[in-house]
Amino acid sequence: MKDSKLHLADFTENQQNTEIPKYYGEALCEIARVDNNLVALCADLAPPTETDIFRDEFPDRYYMTGIAEANMIGLASGMAKMGDIPFVHSFCVFLTRRAYDQVAMQAAYPRTNVKLIGFIPGITTLLGVSHQAIDDIALMRALPNMCVIEPSGPEQVESAVKAIYDYNGPVYMRLNRASSIVNKEDFKSLTIGKVDILKHGKDIVIFACGLMVHKASQAAIKLKSKGIEATVVNVSTLKPMNDQTILDIAKECGCVITAENHSIIGGLSDTISSFLVENNINILFKKIGLNDTFAEGASTDYLLKKYKMDIDDIYENSLNLMKIKGNGNGNI
Question: How many angstroms separate the CA atoms of 332 and 319, rounded?
Fold first, then answer.
């Protein structure tokens, strides 16, 4: 079946240059070569979801369902119950909003071994509100039994695919396609349920996920020029969240910034803040993300600046928290 949605890839800002590897697609094929039970399903978006290379190598294990996301979830659930390991692909917003009841009833509730792979997370598209998944983490976190993952970037994708393949149960993973080549030696591991400390400092901690991890690291460099040592933590597992490291770092620094390519309602920030409160940790806290608003369609760089989610915004908010911390004031 020809991909009738193929033209949509032309409107995503991170449309992939042919020279850039398809890190997700290659990682999926690598596992499929040793496990014949792995199958791939796609809702008419093969090239944008990098499943075209799986389709070409394993045509008998590739299922193009057409623009029918809800039916695709039902099909995947049935295949999982028969022993297959289905990886299901579409854009984030289509896998979550369009097929939410099917995901709940046919993947999460029976805890079927279905892996949901969403592309174009948050505001990484020119197509605007209809295609911007600004609430997908919140929706999927709310479902019992659902594991929610977001790699920091292409450097973590290979490990992420292996991790969710080994995980027994439903997983939702949101991905942003690579816009540049990553050296093999720069690949990073992903362990479900664990965070990664990328930089350690004693003054403030920045918890970030997805594309915001790089923004947080750049902000930490700017903060160091002001004599502020920031800890940067890549939170690649949004659910389950029970890593003691989060609590230890928050208590050590006394100031927390969260940065996410998502609404500040129900995503990383609420996940971290709830985890801290449940463990009786009461500290300075600031959320950076979409502030209860829909985003217009534009380039990612433009939108990050407009909605105050860029490097300078992390930097300025960190400075403000440090001032409050220095004055001995309460939480914000």
Answer: 14
Helix axes 244-253, 268-278, angle to 10 degrees: 80
3-state secondary structure at position 220: helix
User: Which residues contact residue 214 at a Cβ distance below 8 angstroms, ignoring those fewer than 6 apart?
Assistant: 152, 153
* pLDDT, tens digit (0-9, with 9 covering 90-100), for 127-157: 999 999 999 999 999 999 999 999 999 999 9
Q: Which secondary-structure segment (H or E) carries 100?
A: helix 100-103
Determine how many CB atoms are found less than 10 A away from the CB of residue 26.
15
What is the model's pTM? 0.93
- Radius of gyration of the chain measured on its C-alpha atoms: 19
- Which residue from 192, 197, 189 is spatially nearest to 229, judged by alpha carbons? 197
Q: 229-248 pLDDT, tens per residue?
A: 999 999 999 999 999 999 99
CA distance 183 to 266: 34
Look up tokens 């500040």; give the residue: 264
Nearest to residue 61, comparing CAs of 35, 23, 27?
Answer: 35
